[in-house]
Specification:
heterodimer, A: 2 helices, B: 14 strands, Ketoacyl_synth_N (chain B), 3-oxoacyl-[acyl-carrier-protein] synthase 2 (chain B)
Chain lengths: 73, 416
């Protein structure tokens, strides 16, 4: 697993309190990992902090997963 | 319209001297002090370096880690105490009508630590607002009842009362009245607070409200100390299940006591100082007695507000002498804050629990670490000093007063 992927995964495990095995690349934050809208915002902020990047808001949440991380609209 | 009778059917306590109702009671009658040096943050530059923190409490022992992370400590405490009270009441959540179960609790401040940490985080940054999306829902004082209802499915009235240190007594009085009026069968009431934080200690220190006897944190509380000392900040939660009497009887619930009245008044005098003649305090005890349909002579025990601030304690004891006249000397008066510290918005809840348990056991917990009498206090008053006293209690009163001049008083009676 790439360094980026493992760092993303670590944040998801920490914030959503899910098992590491559940965080597969296609898992939806909301549908599979139990995130609500506030969890999703928090995740985005954590990714921004971790990678020093800006992620556009108002993502289409149905596409949110650890691969896209809500970046793809 | 005939008012319904209201009884106490469940208790839960998470306090600096005991993490359950039973541990709390055991510590109360042993005269245990909850004061110790602060462990939560570096107090080197703080005037007061001690408080009554909870001991050996780990929130994730009780609450799922993911959920606990979304709660300020005042909500975590509320969840743990209310779970204990609901279990103690033996409430069958599948059998009761949850539309008629409310949650009304007090918090003097609410999520102070959450607010403090989010603002600190912003101040350390470059001005870009990066507030956590859970900041507001974690901080707001009403979120504790909100979370209790979400967990248990209680769909009745749900809110937090805020009247500083009288908050949880106000919550109990609201709960009492809704049940009396037939609008609810059961209400989870009480209060919680978690203000032992940088902002809490710094803020209360700035007012000269806190004791600064850092050299003897084990002897922090002294009812009627000379000017210069003050209260010891505590934290934790109390939960009380109030239930309509027939509802409780029908399900065979254990009944601790009846809640027979609530009194409320305001000093209309000063933001933080009590009225020197105690006029608001006299009024609140009188209107509480009237609300309960009791006479002063009926009262056996008073758990005072008694915070160890000289102005407040003198005014309260003078007010007791005024309201109860020659009967005042027959009353077992105590301040359990001498052991727990001052739990602010949870004070009324844990002190009511102390009084209800005193009634159940026939023992009045002591006022510890008391050394100094003020000349203006009637020496015949029984302040239950240093050791617990056996006493059959039929009627107990619990007083709480808050910054802003809010006074609230609750009366409990042994069920006939």
């Amino acid at each position: 697993m790439s360094d980026i992927a493992s760092r993303v995964k670590a944040i998801i495990v920490d914030k959503l309190g899910v098992d590491e095995n559940e965080v597969v690349t296609e898992a939806s934050f909301t549908n599979d990992l139990g995130a609500d809208s506030l969890d999703t915002v928090e995740l985005i902020m954590e990714f921004e902090k971790e990678f020093d990047i800006q992620i556009p808001r108002r993502p289409s949440r149905k596409h949110c997963n650890s691969r896209s991380s809500c970046i793809i609209h | 319209m005939e008012l319904k009778r209201v009884v106490v059917t469940g208790l839960g306590a998470l306090t600096p001297i005991g993490n359950t109702k039973d541990e709390y009671w055991d510590a109360l009658i042993k005269g245990k002090s909850g004061a110790a040096p602060i462990t939560y943050f570096d107090t080197e530059k703080f005037k007061t370096k001690f408080a009554c923190e909870l001991k050996n409490f780990v929130a994730t022992d009780f609450i799922d880690r993911k959920e606990a992370r979304k709660m300020d400590r005042f909500t975590q405490y509320a969840m743990v105490a209310s779970d204990e009270a609901i279990a103690d009441a033996n409430l069958d959540l599948d059998a009761i009508n949850k539309l008629r179960v409310g949650v009304i609790r007090g918090a003097g401040i609410g999520g102070l630590e959450t607010f403090q940490n989010e603002v600190l985080n912003f101040a350390e940054g470059d001005g870009t607002p990066r507030f956590n999306p859970f900041f507001i829902p974690k901080m707001i004082a009403d979120i504790a009842p909100g979370n209790i209802s979400i967990k248990n499915g209680f769909m009745g009235p749900n809110y937090t009362t805020v009247s500083a240190c009288a908050s949880s007594a106000n919550a109990m009085i609201d709960a009492l009245n809704y049940i009396r009026l037939g609008q609810c069968d059961v209400i989870v009431t009480g209060g919680s607070e978690a203000a032992v934080t940088i902002a809490g200690m710094g803020g209360f220190n700035a007012m000269h409200a806190l004791s600064t006897r850092n050299e003897s944190p084990k002897q922090p509380q002294d009812l009627l100390m000379p000017p210069g000392d003050g209260f010891v900040l505590g934290e934790g939660a109390g939960a009380i299940i109030l239930e309509e009497y027939e509802h409780a009887k029908a399900r065979g619930a254990k009944i601790y006591a009846e809640v027979v009245g609530g009194g409320m008044s305001s000093d209309a005098y000063h933001m933080t100082a009590p009225h020197p003649d105690g006029i608001g305090v006299i009024a609140v005890m009188r209107n509480c007695l009237e609300n309960a349909g009791l006479k002063p002579e009926d009262v056996d025990h008073i758990n005072t507000h008694g915070t160890s601030t000289p102005l407040g304690d003198v005014a309260e004891l003078k007010a007791i002498s005024e309201v109860f006249g020659s009967h005042a000397k027959n009353i077992n008066i105590n301040s359990t804050k001498s052991m727990t510290g001052h739990l602010l918005g949870a004070a009324g809840a844990i002190e009511s629990i102390a009084s209800i348990l005193a009634m159940e056991h026939g023992i009045v917990p002591p006022t510890i670490n008391h050394t100094t009498f003020d000349d203006s206090i009637d020496p015949s008053l029984n302040l239950t000093l240093n050791t617990p006293q056996k006493r059959e209690i039929k009627v107990a009163m619990s007083n709480t007063f808050g910054f802003g001049g809010h006074n609230a008083c609750v009366l409990f009676k042994k069920l006939d």
